Amino acid sequence: MKCIQDIYDAIENGGFNASALHLIDEFVNDIENGSTDLPRFNQQEHSGLCKAGSALIGASVIASYAARSLTAGSHAGGSQNVPSSWEIDELQERLIEEWARAAKLWVESSDSIVSKGFGPMIAQGAEAKVYYRDGSPAVLKERASIYSTTQKALDAIALHNYLFPETAMHVIGFTRDTDGLFRVILIQPYVRCKRLATKEEIDELMKKGSATIGRDKA
Q1: C-alpha distances in Å from residue 65, one per residue of 9, 62, 80, 124, 169
Q2: What pTM did the predictor assign?
Q3: Is the pLDDT of residue 143 over 90?
């Protein structure tokens, strides 16, 4: 069983070389088979993390390394400076991109590739571009972050999977769109619904979910 500190040390000493990539893969496998975990998540949330797949777990490990290394650097020499969210976010994006390229999880020019291979874009909002071909059991999304850090954006996917397992998101890669915006590429089941939920129904469901997570972490 690999320790996450071994991964941090390997990245610190050699970047995302073959040895570091191997350690990350082994650690991800340990998480998926239940022999280890990420400290940020409780047991129930881990199910959502694993549903998101190895790419999401690996990116979460890299994001945690980025935050840790930046915080450690800001405290060097006895300084009590705390890195800002934008500094953490910037480093997390950069290191995840470096890791994803080394791990063959990075997609260049994904907009045209996705539309040709998966179907046309059917919707676009602040958080995601959605692609779908008639008859497909799933949609593909290029999901951007609306959170203060990339880590929180990744955590949101794991928590979504925990709260809504019937529409679990499975991460397959990472990219930047034509505007240079970092995006997570994922697949999610396509659901045919009789009607859209009301704002009141959504608010009530989110309150219940937040209360459950709060009890689990208490």
Answers
A1: 10, 5, 19, 31, 23
A2: 0.84
A3: yes
